[in-house]
Each structure stands twice: as structure tokens, then as C-alpha cells.
Amino acid sequence: MSDQLKKGLEGVLVAESSLSYIDGDAGKLVYRGYDIEDLARNASFEEVLYLLWNGELPTEEQLAEFSDGLSEEQAIDQSVIDTLAALAEADERPMAALRTGVSMLSATEPEPDADPEDLDAARRKGRRIVAKIPTILGAYDRLRRGEEPLDPDPSLSYAGNFLYMLTGEQPTDVAEETFDMALTLHADHGLNASTFTAMVIGSTYADVYSSLTGGVGALSGPLHGGANQDVIETLLELDESGQDPLEWVKEQTEQGRRIPGWGHRVYNVKDPRARILQAKLEDLSEESGETKWLDYTSAIETYLTEEKNLPEKGIAPNVDYYSGAVYYQLGIPIDMYTPIFAMARCGGWLAHVLEYQEDNRLIRPRGRYVGAEDRTVTPIDER
Ligand SMILES: CC(=O)SCCNC(=O)CCNC(=O)[C@H](O)C(C)(C)COP(=O)(O)OP(=O)(O)OC[C@H]1O[C@@H](n2cnc3c(N)ncnc32)[C@H](O)[C@@H]1OP(=O)(O)O
Ligand SMILES: O=C([O-])CC(=O)C(=O)O
Description:
mainly alpha; Citrate Synthase, domain 1; CATH 1.10.230.10; 3-stranded antiparallel sheet; 16 helices; 3 strands; globular; Citrate synthase; transferase; Citrate_synthase
């Protein structure tokens, strides 16, 4: 047994997976053998979910059946809507409302007594959760704005239906395509912190609701998915300052501030998802004529690259750096960015939990004890 301490489990190999592969030096991400750019441009999010869950891209017939199956599971029970209304009244953050909402879905689960080792039942439960997350998020955003939640529209794609339930309007083709691509880019990423959290929970054979609720919790932190909201808040702060972007970022970094959306445990170069989202932001900015967010992200990138030489140290833009500006251009409320990440990643969490459970072993590492020894209890009145 090795006594070498690996803080943050950096580089520790804990499982085999055929789901996604990351080459951190080449800036490459692959789902089941397909390059992420190829999938983002040529497959819908539903096709990517099918791929992650079944190992192959679907035929047209398989996709139609799969998408219908998802659509049939989209509705959420009134009890969940009532709870979301109470959370909205309490001004809860959407990511916390999502965590509660996902957990609460188990109360109306049609197969509550399925054997925890029955992976087909777990897959069906997980699919129900993935289907319902857009409905939870759409309902929550509307409730907090004093509007009635909308019923899902089964004729729309997963991405289109979410945008519809959020805004009450049929999404434009550009919005739907952009959002669909963003979901694909966020669907899976090896053993990141939230996926590993879901796997740890799944390794005890706790039910899939617990695994996916845990995934939402882990993703919410600013070192992980929470960074996409921090990025746009940083850009808004820069905007409000009225300063020249280069001057602003110089001042901020000289004060020791870490710019969110930069740095990654695995990538030593620019994240391929950031490259794709940057190109998308360029397209959207050109189409809308609003180039401010692109100008800001570019100026910060130029400064951190040319003046601070961060890429030379292996610190480069990650997926969260450009997603926020893309969502901002689509008019999505900024505190929904991390919940949207969870919506996309839930399919990846499920795939990893089920893959791990196929050859399950309880995940239980150890810590080195460095505390006091051989003490005896002094009675409380003598302490
Ligand atoms: C979807 C995702 O989860 S992607 C990541 C989203 N999170 C962020 O964007 C938050 C900002 N980034 C970070 O905090 C980190 O880069 C993390 C948490 C993502 C990765 O963390 P780790 O692998 O543990 O790296 P760690 O925090 O130890 O940093 C290593 C070195 O890079 C530096 N560094 C890391 N990120 C940044 C950054 N954003 N800006 C400046 N320097 C940075 C650290 O200061 C450290 O330098 P040092 O060795 O000279 O002290
Ligand atoms: O892999 C990671 O550590 C973080 C990340 O980029 C993701 O989860 O998408």
C-alpha cells in the first residue's frame, strides 16, 4: 500500500472508463471515440446522450424512439412545483433549487422499490431525472419572476424545449442550435469532481437520485461548474468599471486576483470546448452587432497570455471562460448558467455511475492520521 499522499487525488487512477478521453497536452476531448468538435457540430444533444448511454450513435429510428421516451418523462409533479414556488419565495439560488428539485423527484418515482443492483431500473430512473431537469429549471425561473410554469412541448428538441419553458417563446434556430451545442460540450468530462462524487455515492449502491443530487452539489462550487457564473460576473464588473479592459485586468491581477475560467487540473493548454465556444461567441457577436463581451474576453486573454505568460505555465481558458458570454448573448439569466451545466452533465454522471456499477467496488480511500495520540478524557467539570 503506497503511503504517498496525492492531494486532491491529482493523477490518481481510480477506474477504467470507455466514456470520455482527455488529452490535456494536446487539448483534445473525445466521447466514445468521437472528437468533441465533430459531435458538437454534427450531432444533437439527444444523439450524444444516446451515445454516452448506449455506446453507439443512434439510427434515425432509434433516435426517434429515444427522444419520444425522454419527452414522455418531462412533466414534473405539482408537489415539486409547489416546493419550487416556496424556494422561489425564499429567493433560493437556482442551483440550490435544482439540487432540492432533483432530490425531490424520487418521491414520485414509479419504481421506488427496484433492487439497487438492478442497473436497468437505475438507467430508467436516471433517464427520468435527465428528462425532468429542464422542466424544473424552466419552472423555477418563471416562478421567481411571478409567472406560471409552462408545460413541456414534446414537439421540441431537448435544447429547444428548455429555452421555450424559460422564455415562453419558440426559440430561434440560432438560439436552439447554439444551446444544443453547448449542452453537448458539457455532457461529459472524465472523472471530474462532480462525476467522481456521483460515482462515490453510486459505489455504495445508494439510489441514482442520491448520486445525481450529489453531482449537482459538487458542480455548484466556484472551482468547478460555478465558475461560468463567476466569469460573466467578472465581465460585468469590468463593464461597470468603465475602464479600458487591458488596464482593468492588469490592475486586478496585480492585486492577486485569480481570473475565473482559467486553469484546469487536466488541460495544460486551451480547453477544446473553450475554442469551440469562442468561435460561437464570435459568430453571435457578428450577427447581433454586440461585440462587447467578445472584446472583453479577448482583451483579458491577450493580457494573461502575452503579459502574464499563463499558457506557458499550463494555465489557459477552460470551458467556463466562454460559455457565460455565449449564454449572455442568448439572454439567459446569469444564475442559470451553472444549472444549465448540471442539466447537460447529468447524462454524463448517469453514464459513469452505471458504468462503474457494472463492476462495482465500494470507493473508500484512506487519510493519513496526523492528530494527537494516547489522550485520556478529563471529566468535564475538571477541564
Ligand atoms: C468545468 C470546470 O470545472 S473547469 C474549472 C473551473 N474553475 C475555474 O475556472 C476557477 C479558476 N481556476 C482554478 O481555481 C484552478 O485552475 C482549478 C481549480 C480549476 C484547478 O486547480 P488545480 O489543478 O488544483 O490547480 P491549483 O489551484 O493547484 O493551481 C496550480 C497553479 O496554477 C495557478 N492557477 C490556477 N488557476 C489559475 C487562475 N485561474 N489564474 C491564475 N493562476 C491560476 C495557481 O496559482 C497555481 O500556481 P502556483 O503553483 O504558482 O501556486
Ligand atoms: O474535468 C474537470 O476537472 C472539470 C471540467 O472541465 C469539467 O467537468 O467539464
